[in-house]
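Task card 7
Instruction: Convert sequence to structure tokens.
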Amino acid sequence: MSLIPRGTGFDPFSLGFWDPFDGFPIGAGGGSLVPRASSSSETAAFAGARIDWKETPEAHVFKADVPGLKKEEVKVEVEDGNVLQISGERSKGQEEKTDTWHRVERSSGRFMRRFRLPDNAKVEQVKAAMENGVLTVTVPKEEAKKPDVKSIQISG
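Output:
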């Protein structure tokens, strides 16, 4: 039994946006003040792209949970020389008109995440691999330049 009624008013556990003015006529055409995706599942898919970013001495490593997606459905790109973009799309399954849905929690739709890479990233050597629903993107780092130290003789 749920203590919070679902589907009416504010749901603090939903991934979508709550619009307090939903249903009120605003302007000539009516509508909402909060921009919406074409469906709530699209919003959930966009918000649900979970990605970890860790830095090791050798590289920046990104791990994205993309369960159920094939590598052909995910794109990894570097834009503007230093922006890593990970995007993809999960398509909705076939729906039969005779089916009765009791709960829909798996999301479908597009997702996209962008990360500005630091100056020490070697963007020309980015590698990506997918295994068991986890996308791993490795961006090697340039070796830290050691400062040149020159000893100066003290005269006198």
